[in-house]
């Protein structure tokens, strides 16, 4: 998730993510980050100006990673239905494989700790924008109802988020069959023709 960073930055970001998920943001002090990461406070300040700077870098790193993960293997030549299914399969796989990053984004996307510029960059450049283009393409081709594409993506994401939360809290086992049913339900909610045709 933090492969773009050097070892010191990786240690700080990974430790901060664990502390925030386990103890909440306010409890993740610079001294605790230093202690748990094995990086001196002075060395942390060499790369990050403040705890807020660490949290914002963490946010941007996770958003970028999530965007790459969700949109991997989406090929323009594939059908809209194929890309739709793959994108949402990837969202579910992301939430299952990287639960800490998933929880962090869900908890802190609207936090005052996250700079408005960071939120704007994430909103415009994250995977939602690319998937919204796919929805727009589906509308142009007459496959989807005429609704704002970003709104539809957010509507579907909200549904998937609650399913993933239920899975993470062991309220339900999210099997492959249930994943497929959830994705089909998303498709049916905006498609002019119900069900998969391929």
Summary keywords:
198 residues, mainly alpha, Arc Repressor Mutant, subunit A, Tetracycline Repressor, domain 2, elongated, TetR-like_HI_0893_C, DNA-binding, TetR family transcriptional regulator, HTH-type_TetR-like_transc_reg, Homeodomain-like_sf
What does this structure look like?
The longest helix has 21 residues, at about 50-70. The radius of gyration is 19 Å and the shape is elongated. It is built from 10 helices and no strands. The protein folds into 2 domains: about 1-50, Homeodomain-like (Arc Repressor Mutant, subunit A, Orthogonal Bundle), CATH 1.10.10.60; about 50-190, Tetracycline Repressor, domain 2. The protein has about 200 residues and is mainly α. It has helices spanning about 5-25, 30-35, 40-45, 50-70, 80-95, 100-110, 115-125, 125-140, 150-170, 175-190. It comes from Paenibacillus glycinis. It holds the Pfam family TetR_N. Keywords: DNA-binding. This is TetR family transcriptional regulator.
Query: H/E series, N to C?
Result: HHHHHHHHHH
Specify the CATH architecture of the largest domain.
Orthogonal Bundle
Structural class: mainly alpha
- The CATH superfamily of the largest domain appears as Tetracycline Repressor, domain 2
| First-to-last CA distance | 34 Å
Strand element count: 0
How is the CATH topology of the largest domain named?
Tetracycline Repressor, domain 2
CATH top level label of the largest domain: Mainly Alpha
Strand composition percent: under 5%
Portion of residues in helices? Answer: over 70%
Overall mean pLDDT score?
Answer: 91
The value of Rg in angstroms is 19 Å
Stretches where pLDDT is under 50 for at least 5 consecutive residues are none
The total count of helices amounts to 10
Query: What is the domain tally?
Result: 2
Protein name: TetR family transcriptional regulator
DNA-binding region: 29-48
Keywords: DNA-binding
Pfam families: TetR_HI_0893_C, TetR_N
